[in-house]
Structure formats: C-alpha cells, structure tokens
Amino acid sequence: CRPNLIERRKAKFDECLDTEKYKSEVESDTLMGIHAGVTGTPTFFINEQKIAGSKPFKTFRNIIDEELEK
C-alpha cells in the first residue's frame, strides 16, 4: 500500500512541475522575499525584525517578548 501512495504522490508532483501549475505564485513569492531582503532559508520576520538562519527557540522567544513589551 505504501509504495503505491508514494508513486501517486510522485506522479502528482511531476505533473505539477511539468505543467508549471504554481510557477507564477512561486515567482511572486520569490520577488516578495527578495524585496524584503531574504537571501536564504530559513528566514523569519517578527514585526520588522528579520531573523536569518537557524536559531534556537530562545532567540525567537526573546524577540517576541521584546516586541510584546513595546
């Protein structure tokens, strides 16, 4: 059963890729990221603060706490 499910999902993925079903959405999101200063993943925004790269939970908690105090 599992291999059949994987094959069906792969077929749907391949069809989506071949037909460029979401091409305009991906391009739009990419441009939006570029304009926001995103240069890689992961990148997060908390209000106006950009957090680039992998960060520990504590970093996010501290930024959120600071933002809530404003």
Q: How is this structure best described in words?
A:
With 70 residues, the protein is mainly alpha-helical. Helix content is 63%, strand content 11%. It contains 3 helices and 2 strands. It has a two-stranded antiparallel ribbon. The model has no long low-confidence stretch (mean pLDDT 93).
Short description:
A hairpin with a 2-residue loop joins strand 1 and strand 2. The termini are far apart. With 70 residues, the protein is mainly alpha-helical.
Low-confidence stretches: none
Strand order of the largest sheet: 1-2
Which class do the helix and strand fractions yield? mainly alpha
Cα separation of the termini:
53 Å
List key phrases describing it:
single chain, elongated, 70 residues, two-stranded antiparallel sheet, mainly alpha
Question: Secondary-structure blueprint of this entry?
Answer:
Layout: H1 2-19, H2 23-35, E1 43-46, E2 49-52, H3 57-69
Antiparallel strand pairs: 1-2
